[in-house]
Amino acid sequence: MATPPCALPLLFGLMFLLQGDPSQAGDTVAAGRPLSGGESLVSKRGKFRLGFFQPDNSSDHWYLGIWYNQISLHTTVWVANREAPITDPASSQLSISSDGNMVILDHRRSAVWSTNVTGVAPNSTVGVILDSGNLVLADASNTSVVRWQSFDHFSDTWLPGGKLGRSKRTGEVTRLVAWKGSGDPAPSMFSLELDPRGSSQYLLNWNGSEQYWSSGNWTGRAFAAVPEMTSTGASPLSKYTFGYVDGEDESYFVYDVTDESVVTRFRVDVTGQIKFLTWVEAAAEWVLFWSEPKRQCDVHAVCGPSGVCTENALPSCSCPRGFRARRPAEWLQADHTAGCSRNAGLACGGAPDGRQSKSRNEDRFYPMPSVRLPSNAQSAAAASARDCELTCLGNCSCTAYSYTGGCSLWYGDLINLQDTSGGGGAGGSSSSIWIRLAASEFSGTGNKTKKQLVIGLAVAAGSVAAVTATVLAAILILRCRRTRSLRRVEGSLMAFTYRDLQFVTKNFSEKLGGGAFGSVFKGALPDSTLVAVKKLEGVRQGEKQFRAEVSTIGTVQHVNLIKLLGFCSQRTRRLLVYEHMPRGSLDRHLFETSSSHGVLSWETRYQIALGVARGLEYLHDKCRDCIIHCDIKPENILLDEAFVPKVADFGLAKLMGRDFSRVLTTMRGTVGYLAPEWIAGTAITTKADVFSYGMMLFEIVSGRRNVGRPDDGGAVDFFPSTAVGLLLDGDSGGAVDGRLAGSADAAEVERACKVACWCVQDDESLRPSMGMVVQVLEGLVDVNTPPIPRSLKVLADPSKYVQFFSGLPST
Ligand SMILES: *[C@@H]1O[C@H](CO)[C@@H](O)[C@H](O)[C@H]1NC(C)=O
Ligand SMILES: *[C@@H]1O[C@H](CO)[C@@H](O)[C@H](O)[C@H]1NC(C)=O
Ligand SMILES: *[C@@H]1O[C@H](CO)[C@@H](O)[C@H](O)[C@H]1NC(C)=O
Ligand SMILES: *[C@@H]1O[C@H](CO)[C@@H](O)[C@H](O)[C@H]1NC(C)=O
Ligand SMILES: *[C@@H]1O[C@H](CO)[C@@H](O)[C@H](O)[C@H]1NC(C)=O
Ligand SMILES: *[C@@H]1O[C@H](CO)[C@@H](O)[C@H](O)[C@H]1NC(C)=O
Ligand SMILES: *[C@@H]1O[C@H](CO)[C@@H](O)[C@H](O)[C@H]1NC(C)=O
Locate the Protein kinase domain: which residues (predicted)? Predict the structure, then answer.
């Protein structure tokens, strides 16, 4: 452990006298020189600051903590009095008590926290904040003699240089315990510790006992369940040194950074996940590079009793129909410990209303399809679903049942219920559950669950007295800001707050689609304009740059480009608000066999192809800054009521920055549209879009995915090769979607196939510009028969297909 030389306290005492600035009182607290409310200490080289802070402005709770001194976002790494906040920092202080301990004295001069070590001589110690972020209680005469250190008493954060382990002499472990809520440092249910039973694995536990993740044992180079630790080169982990030490007195794990300019931390998040984060100054935010469990909903009881977890959603916790957040104010701060409670008590076991007839008052069941079933099911003998239901009804503590061949019953609170309707299911297993509700829950009509949730929140919050009143006031202030911000306009764009968009999308309840860059949700503006709200994931850009890029995108307007209406940029959240397209994306109309909208006619297809080409031509040549789309595929072509195509998601490449190409090249479902230069790692030009357009044009002609499985055999077939073959044989009509039964304009089909083939040439200089494509499709220009692109030959061979797309560039 790096500790300052012994002369330091003296030196800083001197500086203190000379400067006389109370907020720059050096790095030391000593007897007779306490740290009081408004002051703070800064470590020797300015890396960390120690002082009193208030994590949540709407409450009057203050804590002594350590945070980074040189980054722009207040990020707490340690809190002393996690469970004993003070309310009046001005009259509180951190001092050295007469028994030599470091103590926090509140306004009544009583100790709310102490380092609590014994055998220290009075007036012989000092407290020093070190550049590692470690606060030590050391001998005043020799600060190398450490009596106590915050690195032995972590909060939720484990800093480089700290040891997370177990003492073999005392059996004591150092553990990380998450904050209870985003503004509440009190210890939550989630903790990380070295297996107290003596193995070398780290465990994530809920309430100290329920294990929901394990690192696996140390294998000498990595933990068994964390193989990425051994990866080299491109992995961010290569900047770190790791080591597991199994010594005589203690076992522990340490990590450090080889490059001192790297600012990094490891923490157990409020969500119950462990997260490894690095500060990226250019983006002014913490970037996550490793996390476990990967899926939020795999954290035990993450949404509390009767809460429902939804993967890849924000917020990830909600209450099922008939329930509402038990403690709304905490719920809003991401503290879901208390879970959900019923709006109306059950008749059985509750308080039945004597005036109603028994049958009207009897509890009923509400089905929730597509769920991962809660833990702790009990099986019961039942011959049918109805039997299963009756068995549950017959026991007052039974709260839900599920019948899939066998009968499963749940008693008491439902734990680990997950909504998998939007995908993100665990291992693809998805069932239905019937949740017991009071009869009164069924009296109204239809779908009022979400409204009830919101109203329930407000009502319950109102009924919790004084403490919550301040929280409510804060919420009201936020609300006022919201209405103002809705009217605030940047250029032609609306700037939304995150809360606005929660409101607009009914808390992101209706998902329209998802992709590697984020999910899209349906919403309605106050004037009832329908919108599509895209939640971007992994945007590293800072606020300013994001706004600049978004305004640029906002100025791009064309009948074949989707219109950006507004955006939200708040803290780390980045969302875009687009016009809503009633007919959804092109892939559904082309490929879904059971689609209710019928088969797209040739005429419509041709108009769609032409419209997309015009939209791209505009992006490439006609707007102020050329925009390369980079991700042209049927999923990104949306259709309005009249089947007019609109290109979506343009400009994302710039918003996403460096990450874009990495995500793109590793994303399933995109690879088949990527031009060879993506794989070669050479510069990307507008011709990359031309290639993707060509691939998509083949699909528009054929009405099926380029890479498909013929119904008869198992071999993969690659349609563009087939189409080119037919084209050269003068039979391009054979390439057309069979469902059109020959009703396609032969000249147009041939033109489209030729254009597509020219577009997918390996040599980008041979590919036409989008302007040229438009002219050809409009019939203004004739085209020659194209050469067969080499990549089509390669792609036609399924064994090479894999080779061709493996070994993608890592950035
Ligand atoms: C809380 O108040 C402080 C000081 O007024 C301010 O710097 C900080 O940004 C506020 N935090 C939040 C979350 O509003
Ligand atoms: C100090 O330790 C004693 C027992 O060892 C414990 O009862 C007390 O709560 C501790 N005080 C503080 C402030 O941590
Ligand atoms: C410790 O120091 C304070 C002030 O410097 C003094 O008042 C007190 O008597 C000292 N206590 C002991 C036990 O020396
Ligand atoms: C301070 O303490 C350290 C560790 O106990 C010791 O090695 C060192 O010699 C001491 N320095 C002085 C000046 O006493
Ligand atoms: C880890 O090692 C311990 C013995 O040290 C063993 O009992 C345990 O089963 C191992 N865990 C796993 C997951 O292999
Ligand atoms: C947590 O564990 C303790 C015992 O270790 C138990 O008494 C308590 O009820 C548990 N809490 C919950 C919410 O289950
Ligand atoms: C209801 O079910 C629970 C759990 O199986 C059981 O302990 C309890 O005795 C049952 N109550 C009645 C009235 O059958």
Answer: 506-781
Let me know whether 586 and 438 are in one domain. no
Q: What is the pLDDT of residue 481?
A: 34
Q: Which of 180, 190, 207 for mutating ligand 6's site (highest number of atoms within 8 Å of CB)? A: 207
Please work out whether the CB of residue 207 comes within 6 Å of at least one atom of ligand 6: yes
How buried is residue 713: exposed, middle or buried, by Cβ count under 10 Å (0-12/13-18/19+)?
Answer: exposed
Q: Which residue has the tokens 């002051």?
A: 39
* Residue 556 confidence (pLDDT): 85
For residue 655, what are the domain limits? 582-806
Question: Does residue 574 belong to any structural domain of this protein?
Answer: yes
Looking at ligand 6, which atom is closest to the CA of residue 207? Answer: 1
Could you tell me if 423 and 329 lie in one domain? yes
Q: Which ligand is nearest to the CA of 399?
A: 7
Q: Using alpha carbons, select from 591, 623, 595 the residue that is nearest to residue 696.
A: 591
* Beta partners for residue 33, in sequence order: 30
Nearest atom within ligand 7 for CA of residue 409: 5
Whether residue 573 lies inside any domain: the answer is yes
pLDDT given for residue 22 in this prediction: 40
Q: Does residue 325 sit within a domain?
A: yes
Query: What CA–CA distances, in Å, run from 279 to 179, 240, 594?
Result: 20, 14, 48
Q: In terms of domains, do 233 and 267 share one?
A: yes
**Distance from first CA to last CA of the chain, Å, rounded?**
37
CA distance 476 to 766: 61
Total domains in the chain come to 5
Residues 617, 514 share a domain: no
Q: Does 634 share its domain with 757? A: yes
CA 387 to chain centroid, in Å, comes to: 41
d(C-alpha 437, C-alpha 322), whole Å: 7
- The catalytic position among 139, 298, 631, 689 is 631
Token readout for 5 is 């030389």
613/745 same-domain check: yes
Q: What is the pLDDT of residue 662?
A: 57
Ligand 5 centre to CA of 171 (Å) is 19
Ligand 6 center–CA 206 separation, angstroms = 10
- Distance, in Å, from the CA atom of 700 to the CA atom of 637, rounded to the nearest integer, reads 12
Q: What is the β-pairing status of strands 308-310 and 417-419? A: parallel
CB 348 within 8 A of CB 363: yes
Query: How many CB atoms are closer than 10 A to CB 789?
Result: 24
Is 275 one of the annotated binding-site residues? Answer: no
The string of DSSP codes covering 122-180 is: TT-EEEEE-TTS-EEEEESS-TTSEEEEGGGS--SEE-TT--EEEETTT--B--EEEEE
The answer, yes or no, to whether any atom of ligand 7 lies below 6 A from the CB of 379, is no
| DSSP SS3 for 436 | strand
State the Cα–Cα distance between residues 117 and 163, nearest whole angstrom: 20
The answer to whether residues 250 and 357 belong to one domain is no
A 10 A CB-CB count for 232 gives 7
Tens digits of residue pLDDT in 513-569 = 877 678 899 998 877 788 999 998 877 777 888 888 888 888 888 899 999 999 998
Query: Are 148 and 210 members of one domain?
Result: no
Compute the distance between CA of residue 560 and CA of residue 617 in angstroms, rounded to an integer.
10
What's the pLDDT at 803? 29
Q: Do 450 and 356 meet the contact criterion of CB atoms below 8 Å apart?
A: no
The structure tokens listed for 365 are: 């069941």
Q: Is 219 in the pocket of ligand 5 (CB under 6 A)?
A: no
Q: Please give the model's pTM, rounded to 2 decimal places.
A: 0.60
Specify if 456 maps to a domain: no
Question: Can you give the length of the chain in residues?
Answer: 811
- Distance (angstroms) between ligand 6 centre and the Cα of 54 equals 29
Question: Which domain-ending residue is among 266, 294, 322?
Answer: 294
The SS3 call for residue 401 is: strand
Of 241, 259, 294, the one marking the end of a domain is: 294
